[in-house]
Structures are given as C-alpha cells and as structure tokens.
What we know:
By secondary structure, this protein is mainly α. The protein has one domain (3-205). The protein has helices at residues 3-35, 40-54, 59-73, 75-91, 95-119, 141-157, 160-179, 185-202, 207-217, 234-245; strands spanning 219-221, 224-226. A hairpin with a 2-residue loop joins β1 (219-221) and β2 (224-226).
Amino acid sequence: MGARSISDRRISLAKGAGALALALFCVLLIALAQRTGWLEGVNVGLMTLAGEGRETGPGGTVTMVMRLASAIGGTLGRITLLALVLAPLLWAGHRRSAAWLAGMMAGGTLLNLGLKQIYAAPRPDLLPHLDIVNSYSFPSGHSAGNMMFFGALALLAGGRIAQALAAAMILMIGVSRVWLGVHWPSDVLAGWIEGLGWLALCAVWLPARRGEEQRADDAVVGRHAVRGDEAMDPETVEHARGGDQQ
Length: 246
C-alpha cells in the first residue's frame, strides 16, 4: 500500500472520528435540551398523538405491528439477526466482513450502554408501557443499535434497494418505541444520531472499501496492472506501452 493510500486512510479515519465526535456532541445538546424542558412540547405532543392512536379502531393492529418491530429491534432480536447474517458470511469465506460486522456491533452496544449510564435518564411515564423496560431511557438503545446494524448491512450489500429497506426498518423500530410509550421522541433521535456517528467511524475499516483502495493502488499502464516496484520501473512501463501498440 503506497504513501498516498496511507494518507487517504488517515484522512478517512480523521473524518470518521470527527463524525462520531459531532454525533456525540449533538447527543449532548439533545440531552441538555430535554432536561431543561426545551423539548417538552415536542416530546409530549408526539407521544400524546401516539396514545390517541392506540385508542382508535386500527390502533390495536398498529400496536401489534409496533410490538413486532420492537421485538425484532431488541437485544435478543438483533443478536438473532446478527447470527443469521454472520453464518452465511463465514460460510462464503467473507471472514473480514463478518469480523467487521461483529466488532462494530459489539463496540456500538458498549457505547450505548456507557451513554445510558452517563445520562441516567428515566423512562417517560406519560403513557402505559406496552413493553418491559429495565434500563435508562436516553439515548434509545433500539434506535442506536438498529441504525448500526441495518446501516452496516446496507453498506455491505450496497445499492439503493438495500438502503431503502434499511431506512424503513430503522424508522419503524424507532417509531415503535414512542408508540409503545417507553421512549421520548428525543431519545429515539439521539439514538439514531449516536448510531450513525459510530457507523461513520467504523466504516473506515469496512472490508469492501479496503479492497477498493487496494485496487486503486495498482498502477495501470494500458491494460496491464503494474504493482509495487514495477510501477517505478521505466522499462516495465515502456514494455507495457509497446505491447498495447502491437
């Protein structure tokens, strides 16, 4: 890997670290705004709408869907989904991708647990809880964890369809936590921001990107890929050009 590639990696790492730092700063601002009451109108208003929706005719069906989404996005659900993704990755020989995904999720989970302990925010009590909760409320672990997980799957899979499906799952799981009465909307927003920041940092080590950088390091003369010291050898370059002209 050349000096340019090393420099690019350092720039990418700096950008990733900056994205995480910005995300954590935004989480701090949301926490301060929530504690000072600046977000009370939005939080109470949106959760009140959720409570009213639960009492309507279709509310029961929506609640069932929201319970399912919350279960899929919960700790047990994410572990199950992670195992279902890691198994085929390992079977297909994509060990680096599997290791990256597992390491990213483990680190992100620890980050969220640490932030919960730092802010120690109680759960909202505006609506009856439709889910069993035993941890602090801010930032939402469901929102952060699924931003990381489904965002990572979108990065590994690539393509707009994967991105759209990931976005839909992230949105539904986040909304489900408000509908079930166990998170303020600001908890969910902070979780999304936290997860996005962590994902931005971890994307620096995304195996697919590393492969692209390695291919970019290959010096290409005509149709011949030239690597390492050969790229600096004038005779090799001249020979390759001569071959193309024949």
